[in-house]
Amino acid sequence: QAKAADPNQIASYLGEGSLYLTKQNNVTQAIDLFEQAAQVNGSLLEPYAMILNAYGQERFGRPTLNLDCPYAPRLVDCSVGVGDYTIHSGVDSNLEAKYQEIYDADPNSLANNIRLAAFYQAFQLYSQAITYWQRVVQMDPTNSQALMELGRLYERQETGRTEAARDVGMSLAFGPDLQEAHNLLVRLEHNRLSSPASGAVLTGTVQLNGTANSDRLNQTSGFAYYKIEIGTGDQPTHWTQLALSYQPVANGLLATWNTYQWANGTYTIRLTVVDKSGNYGPWQDLTVQVKN
Fold first, then answer.
1. Rounded to whole angstroms, how far apart are CA atoms 128 and 254?
2. Contact present, 51 and 29 (Cβ < 8 Å)
């Protein structure tokens, strides 16, 4: 009835598709409705994210992306929501080929670029996702969602693009989502590892530099402490505390790591900053290689 009353209201397509997916396990019908929503308004991320979610449920029997965030849907690292939300590993090559074919038919379509950006972001292929979000911004410089996702991706890459991410945050500050822009800026400027770089090969004693002097969401609650932890692999299940400090640091030495005491291999460095209320925003993880 909602669709009949207003065929241009995408919420009705998304709502009906979600019911098919969650209540009847009808993935095909759900995807068809999500695609209709994308046809009504191809400039939004949500329909494409829900399509990918449906494909993920079909493959693995569980959601692929977490869409239960209080702001614009995020494809990765959302700490809000219920259920076992995970991102599956390995790119779905068949789906990638399908989306690439759609894109090649009209590379100047805003919708086609958002579709590919969402796909690569879901599979954590950040460089590719950034490429397509940049194209979206070129076509639509006021697209706040594209700017927001670019900011998150730049931040996650941590390859010298912090200033670019800060610029994205500043542009958002004059847009419709001031709180999210503020959150992004606080984390970029107050909680981050600046070195070593992501993917760096480390030997000997290494200095871990950066800034840790404010919580992410509420600067008024005050800094309590920060900690640096090391985990084995790129998705650790166990962490070893390397350093704990009750003194804030601004663009300085956070910890020293003697890699000679660790076996060669892949490690993840984690920075967590905690405020006086015991709260903390999303931590920052940095993956490196130890090779002595």
1. 32
2. no
Phi and psi at residue 220, in whole multiples of 5°? -75, -20
Please answer whether residues 151 and 171 qualify as being in contact, where contact means their C-beta atoms are separated by less than 8 angstroms: no
Tokens 């350093």 correspond to: 243
- Comparison of pLDDT for 167 and 46, the residue scoring more: 46
What's the pTM value of the predicted model, to 2 decimals?
Answer: 0.48
240-266 pLDDT, tens digit per residue, is 999 999 988 888 899 999 999 999 999
Question: Pseudo-torsion of CA 206, 212, 217, 221, nearest 10°?
Answer: 150
Which amino acid type is present at position 10?
A: I
β-pair type (223-232, 191-195): unpaired
- Compute the chain's Rg from CA coordinates: 21
Q: How many CB atoms lie within 10 A of CB 237?
A: 7
CB atoms within 10 A of CB 104: 9
Q: How far apart are CA 136 and CA 94, in angstroms?
A: 24
